[in-house]
Write a structure and sequence with these properties.
heterodimer, A: about 450 residues, alpha+beta, 8-stranded antiparallel β-sheet, B: about 160 residues, mainly alpha, 3-stranded parallel β-sheet, 8 helices, about 10% strand
Chain lengths: ~450, ~160
């Protein structure tokens, strides 16, 4: 996803269209919509995939019912009647400079957000699926470059199908229908053939786009919770179901260390490298409490001298471990949504986490959206640009969320090749400048 | 234009309260309604860092996007080429102005004033020296500095999108 589009969601009354980079840093005061923005990124991915129903209350983003998600202006205006979540993606095989744009519009149904329309605009094709208010029957409209289009009501049974699947099914049947009608026209002539041809052309284009689209889209963004699970002295091996708090991580570690030693030996140096640079640990070990695979185990952390149980070392280790392990293990091109990854970390470790994420963004083509209050992490990312070896200015975006007139503005700050912030808005970090004056006797 | 603050007056600008002569410079750099910006880089960086209070402000202004660092290598290379032309013993300041685009200097060094306002050394536009509040009009951005180029680019984009 190259760009996120939001309108009518919580504090984002007006339409916001925000560019995403390999490293996108979200900064600003509390309650300025940073976490909501992260939630929208995952929901935009869901919307791209046409997930029905879209879940607005999946950990770690519990957004609540419709009235909590839609912007509320107060007074007679009340809540927005609909809200929009969308994305733009430069698809493989698409026209250069002309990304595909998908937008999903949600309305209120039984108090919850419900998809009312889904549209895709790409190259010369415009596809829109609308859902009836009463029975959610999908209504499909497809138009091509000529502007001519075809609309059709689909069976109600399709309302639970993912939108791209609906489009795919309609396209295949349309092409089949076209073939049949072409045969008919040869014998009798058919008045709607031209529009059907247009539709089929759009359909073939759609299918091509769809293939490129899903290659580009990648896997679903992985979201970390702002507080990760607390450490335990002993763990039982469980199925490693990924959860935002990272409670699956110990099982992943024992799975690697005990059952896949070759993979563990490939993985462990990266883990140690981060641990040493950050000062958090020099090594991690998994200590099994028996010979059975299903037996309990402990995570041991070596800092200097003997190893200690994960529970007996600083809390920062267990807090950052899920981020480090999941980020390393994620496949190339994955997107990670991080909320305050710096919690419980010493500034040295905060800064080193910045370098670690920059390295993964560069070498593993992973994408990180990082909500942070850490100057050290932001500074380090800027320094990785200044060095020029790891990141380029175009790899980093610094989003500054600012409350203004009851709305929230998102300023996209640019970083030059020296790591300087070149377009800071007036008032940016004013608190810090004032605080410095106070501290120095002002 | 961005401002360059020579090490000889830096502590007067950044001490609290600032020296009366340099208070407008400090206010311009820290006032939320204004867009002041400090240029630094090359040998000047080390000189400024040695002054504790200046070091603190340098970090804060840098994080706020109100201090722009120029490449040390580029400034050093430029310094070597301008040294024979300079009267003062601060060719690194002249080099920084040429690399960064900053055209206002805060300094009390007479020889450096001559170099900085010498059109053969600092041009398009020519450099100017701030010494006291009567020079407050010099605290603004001109076409040579990155702030102004950025602003013009942004305006161009906005005009294009209309």
């Amino acid at each position: 996803m190259d760009r996120i589009i939001i309108e009518g969601v919580r504090c984002f009354y007006e339409r916001r269209s925000v560019l995403l980079k390999p490293i996108t840093l979200l900064t600003g005061e509390n309650s300025t919509g940073k976490t909501t923005f992260l939630a929208m990124v995952r929901l935009a991915w869901d919307a791209c995939n046409g997930r029905v129903p879209v879940d607005f209350n999946e950990e770690p983003f519990i957004l609540g019912p419709y009235d909590e998600v839609a912007s509320y202006r107060g007074g007679r205006a009340g809540s927005a009647r609909t809200f929009t979540i969308g994305t733009e993606i430069a698809t493989k095989g698409g026209k250069p400079g002309s990304p595909a744009r998908i937008t999903a519009v949600f309305g209120k149904k039984e108090g919850q957000p419900a998809l009312t329309s889904w549209s895709l605009v790409a190259d010369d094709v415009h596809v829109k699926v609308s859902y009836g208010e009463a029975d959610a029957t999908p209504y499909l409209r497809i138009s091509g470059s000529s502007g001519r289009g075809t609309a059709m009501r689909l069976p109600a049974s399709m309302s639970e199908r993912p939108v791209p699947e609906i489009i795919g099914m309609v396209m295949f049947s349309t092409v089949g229908e076209l073939t049949r009608r072409q045969g008919l026209q040869k014998r009798h002539g058919h008045p709607s053939l031209s529009s059907l041809r247009d539709l089929a052309k759009a359909g073939r284009e759609m299918l091509r786009l769809r293939a490129g689209f899903f290659q580009t889209l990648g896997s679903r963004p992985h979201a970390f919770a702002p507080i990760r699970s607390r450490p335990h002295r002993t763990y039982d091996p469980m199925r490693g179901i990924v959860d935002p708090e990272g409670s699956h991580v110990p099982s992943i570690l024992v799975g690697l260390a005990a059952l896949r030693p070759a993979a563990w030996n490939r993985f462990r140096p990266s883990l140690r490298s981060f641990g040493e640079a950050s000062g958090l640990f020099s090594d991690l070990k998994v200590l099994r409490m028996g010979k059975k695979e299903s037996g309990p185990f402990q995570i041991q952390v070596k800092i200097s001298g003997p190893a200690f149980n994960l529970m007996d070392v600083g809390y920062g280790v267990s807090q950052v471990l899920p981020i480090v392990v999941d980020s390393l293990r994620g496949e190339k091109g994955s997107t990670f949504l991080l909320q305050q990854p710096e919690v419980h970390l010493h500034p040295k470790a905060q800064a080193e986490l910045g370098s670690f994420l920059a390295f993964l963004a560069k070498e593993h083509r992973k994408r990180f959206l990082i909500e942070t209050h850490s100057d050290y992490l932001v500074d380090r990312i800027r320094m990785e640009v200044r060095g020029g070896k790891v990141l380029k200015p175009e790899d980093v975006s610094l989003l500054y969320f600012e409350r203004a007139d009851g709305d929230v503005r998102i300023h996209s700050l640019e970083i030059d090749r020296m790591g300087n912030i070149v377009n800071a808005p007036k008032g940016y970090r004013q608190f810090f400048l004032e605080e410095e004056k106070r501290l120095l006797g002002g | 234009m961005c401002v360059i603050i020579d090490a000889d007056v830096a502590s007067l600008v950044f001490r609290y309260p600032p020296d009366l002569d340099f208070a407008p410079v400090f206010n311009w750099l820290t006032d939320p309604l204004r867009n002041g910006c400090l240029a630094y880089g090359g040998r000047l960086t080390g000189q400024l860092r040695q002054i504790g209070v200046v070091r603190r402000w340098l970090v804060q202004l840098d994080r706020a996007g109100r201090a722009h660092k120029s490449s040390d290598e580029e400034v050093t290379d430029e310094e070597q080429s301008v040294t024979p032309l300079c009267k003062s013993d601060d060719p690194h300041i002249i080099a920084l102005a040429r690399i960064s685009g900053a055209r206002t200097l805060c300094s009390r060094d007479g020889d450096l004033h001559q170099d900085f306002t010498n059109g053969d050394l600092v041009a398009t536009p020519r450099g100017a020296v701030y010494q006291n509040p009567t020079h407050t009009h010099l605290l603004r951005h001109t076409s040579s500095c990155p702030q102004e180029r950025q602003r013009r680019r942004a305006n161009g984009r906005r005009a294009g999108s209309r």
